[in-house]
Amino acid sequence: MEVVVAITQTKRFQQLKNLLALVAVVKFGGDFWRTMTELGMTGSFKALLSYLFKTTLYYGKKLPFVKGQVEAEINKALKQLENQIMKDERAGQYVHFNDLLQTGMTKEQIMEELQKHREMAHHKWEEGKMSGCVYHGGKDLTDVVTAASNLFEWSNPLHCDAFPGLRKLEAEVVSMVVKMFNGTPGACGSMTSGGTESIIMAVRAHKEWARETKNITRPHLIMSYTAHVAFDKACEYFGIRITHLPVDPKTRQLRLSDVRAAITPNTIMVVGSCPSFPWGTIDDIQGLGKIAQEYNIGLHVDCCLGSFVVAFMEQSGFPLPLFDFRVPGVTSISCDTHKFGFAPKGSSVVMYRNSDLRRYQYFAQPNWPGGIYASPTVAGSRPGQLVAGCWAALMYHGKEGYIKSCQKIIGSARKITAAVRAMRGIQVIGEPLASVVAFESAEADIYRISDGMNKKGWNINNLQYPPAFHICCTYMTDADQFISDLKEVMDVVLQNPEEKATGGAAIYGMSAAIPDRSLIDRIARGYIDTMYLTDK
Known about the structure:
β4, α11 (about 285-295) and β5 form a beta-alpha-beta unit. The strands form three sheets. A seven-stranded mixed beta sheet has the order 1-7-6-5-4-2-3, sandwiched between helices. The model has no long low-confidence stretch (mean pLDDT about 85). The protein has helices spanning about 1-5, 10-30, 30-60, 65-90, 105-120, 140-150, 165-180, 195-215, 230-240, 255-260, 285-295, 305-310, 355-360, 385-420, 445-455, 480-495, 505-510, 515-530, and strands at about 190, 220-225, 240-245, 265-275, 300-305, 330-335, 350, 365, 375, 425-430, 435-440, 460-465, 470. About 50% of the residues lie in helices and about 10% in strands.
């Protein structure tokens, strides 16, 4: 990776960069007035510099003396990732089933193989050392959800005429969640497969609303650079231009003045996080609501991670600034029922202030020879057992159950926050109000600290820009153990604070130093390829 950084500093590379400036001017010249209208003078200049930089890097990598070195570095990184991902199955005695068996297995044989694969785990989530990832509500709930799911194992919500009871359950899940977020009369929603799909649906709804009611054909979305990457995915899918705004360096919130400055005639919506995934901070939703009303644009509040925790914090004795449909200007909200609702993975709810906006997320084709087709979300057929399992989880807990879990989760997060603020060499980022607490260090390599926690059995999330890591507290999080382990790690790290992380923990630090993010993009896509590898 160091080779790539050095190449960008060479004289030949700088000459190429200057040559491409003329090309950039010619390219932008054709769209000059559109660019100036949408981005303004400062924004246009930044766009020009960005284009120039990316184009220079793109053609620079084509040079013979560069290309070979870059490819070698990428292939080396991908091989390391492959070895890391597949080390367990390659080290164990596993049979590889790459072709369909001629004769099927018995139930006992199948269960035996599945048990082997279940035990192929780096972290035992039952020990309470997972950051997020597994949102377990207890064995009794698991039994209830499993039984409920089995009753609807072969059902499909797409065919509500064949499964009317399932339709009722899904409508009730949406209604319960909408009311949790103080939906006004007419507020509504849809169930989806997860937070990403909920966000994609909200973006689509606002895009189509803006196209039909405001004739916007070049839509633009505003979000902080810490908002969930699912918005980037949605905008890539739908061809929507994004403005990623910085956050306040102290509060880590989206600055209202920056939002106002970024609004253009083509802006369709702004995004607020409650909380943000990286640092667990909550944006000023009331301030964003006033801006959304003033400019007649949408405001989506992403509560996917906050889920039932933020919905019940006020009732649990942890008041928050208003963030839901009580805020004028909020047009949609996403909430993952499969997180702190403790529903089975694959369930979320996207909510809208009114059904007129929700209709814009739908797809309908009345002219298909196969019949009139319509679906509310991306999927056509969906697993009915997830709907039944989600309904069962909500009914099992009730308000009292979710208040109890909220108190325990927030209690763990607040205990960790207070303890870390008293430690030397590590700092809490911003003001974490919900379940996520993030850490950085001005005195040591933060990834060395996270690696130390990993070696003590913790599965935590490394972050970048700035270097950091966080823990998302769940119902199972052992806060006392986390604090104890972190103290021990800090004692070791501060004995030699200049030492850098090695191995997998060093990847984030190395990648942040590479100016050409397309290289990291390639490695990330290669990582996904590795997920589908099978040993022959």
